[in-house]
Design brief:
The chain is of the alpha+beta class. Helices cover 42% and strands 19% of the residues.
């Protein structure tokens, strides 16, 4: 995904995160906490280290840009840390360092993310500092203009980057005029036209209590967390802009070539996918591992790289967004091999539509997916982010404990049923950026 990302985390916090050993997924006990003011959060207590990670998400993300203001929420998010209350930009950064705290702000199509790391001894002061950024940002003109310049630099670089060009073309092919169909950074014209007042409007559209999820992991009790959340988030507006409608996935069979000088072609491809709550999502997850997500053990990697040397790497992914779902893949290849590589992808996709898998393929995919999952829980911050993502995706609070069992339960018949229903044998839409021969 091509977007602007501003992430700052001071060294003391990184060290503390590293000191927190990974917990077995099954040992993680998640509690639901409701603050006196009615804010709900998920909490994992871990008192061995005096450190807490807090993750806040606001649903909607850049999809909530006002008409004609594309890029406003992205620019606003990147400017949140440029000063608030009594602090200018440098003072805000210095205050974080003095408290050994770390805050970061990021946004994508579906959510605006706020991440905070803080020591127990400094927690109250850190919360107060973060509260200012969330409820009383300056958005002073000099800061807005400086960050705007950084966004424009990224847009200029993307215009010369074949991967970014392919991603933008794929967005448009998949989602058309829906917010998903354009770069969340905006365009040069839309970003140049944004004003300081647009920053306040963008914040009011997305940073509201009605679309907020919260998680905390570390040295904090439910009795401490509730009042802290009210102090931090209670002053935010109750409601924001309405969510956009569902996006129709407009991908259709075919190949679009975008000329670009260079020795290689960048190829993206995809079709409609599955929502996370689709009954066949877990069979699709297992099959995607077999088809393209399994590295050197995947079918596409074996056919295109190992047997024929057409690419250094190819992968596929299920991409279930809030308002649409796709099944995507991509690779790079030399211009003279692009046509052959695309033909092989089509061939493997048609084979995948039958849903036939071997016992070894199924076993290996399950072993990887279940074995790799616990490795994600390697620190307070990672766990807090996972919990926030679970809430955004409407997953149950016990998902961490039940997820692997759901993968183990997938059968060959499940995969065959899913593939015959979902995978379009000749339905891939290809975007090719380069000078491919034979297309």
């Amino acid at each position: 995904m091509i977007r602007l990302s501003f992430r700052r985390l001071v060294a003391p916090v990184l060290l503390l995160g590293a000191l927190f050993a990974a917990l077995p997924a099954a040992a993680i006990e998640v509690k639901e906490v409701t603050s006196p003011g009615g804010i709900t959060a998920w909490l994992v207590e871990e008192h061995d280290i005096p450190f807490t990670a807090l993750e806040i998400r606001f649903r909607g993300g850049t999809s909530l840009d006002a008409p004609g203001k594309r890029g406003a929420i992205n620019l606003m998010t990147a400017t949140l840390e440029e000063g608030s209350g009594d602090y200018d930009s440098q003072g805000f950064a210095a205050a974080q360092q003095a408290l050994a705290a770390g805050f970061s702000f990021d946004v994508d199509d579906d959510a605006l993310a706020v991440s905070a790391r803080m020591l127990s001894d400094n927690r109250d002061k850190a919360v107060e500092l973060l509260r200012g950024a969330l409820t009383d940002p300056h958005f002073d003109q000099a800061s807005v203009d400086r960050v705007r310049g950084q966004v424009l630099s990224i847009l200029a670089a993307n215009a010369r980057d074949p991967q970014a060009i392919a991603a933008e073309a794929f967005r448009k092919a998949a989602f058309g005029t829906h917010p998903y169909g354009s770069d969340p950074n905006g365009t040069v014209e839309s970003v140049k036209a944004l004003t300081r007042e647009d920053m306040f409007d963008a914040k009011a559209r997305v940073m509201t209590r009605d679309r907020m999820v919260v998680s905390a992991v570390g040295d904090i009790t439910p009795e401490e967390l509730g009042p802290m959340l009210d102090r931090l988030l209670g002053a935010l507006p109750a409601t924001g802009a309405p969510m956009p409608p569902k996006a129709e996935v407009a991908l259709k069979p075919g190949t679009t070539v975008i000329p670009f000088e260079g020795p290689q072609s960048i190829v993206l491809f995809g079709q409609r996918g599955l929502a996370l709550d689709d009954p066949d999502y877990f069979p699709a997850m297992v099959f995607n591992q077999i088809l393209g997500a399994g590295g050197f053990s995947s079918r596409l990697m074996d056919e295109l790289r190992e047997k024929r040397g057409l690419t250094y790497g190819i992968s596929t992914a299920l991409v279930p967004m809030d308002l649409a779902a796709t099944w995507q893949g991509g690779f790079a290849t030399s211009n003279d091999k692009a046509a052959e590589a695309i033909a092989l992808v089509k061939q493997e996709w048609a084979k995948a539509a039958t849903g036939a898998v071997t016992d070894d393929e199924l076993k290996n995919a399950k072993t990887y997916l279940t074995g790799a999952y616990p490795l994600r829980f390697d620190g307070n911050g990672r766990i807090a982010a996972i919990l926030a993502g679970m809430q955004l995706n409407h997953l149950p609070i016990d998902y961490i404990r039940t997820r692997n069992a759901r993968i183990e339960a997938v059968t060959r018949d499940d995969i065959a049923r899913m593939a015959k229903r979902v995978i379009q044998a000749d339905g891939l839409d290809f975007i090719v950026v380069g000078q491919p021969k034979g297309l």
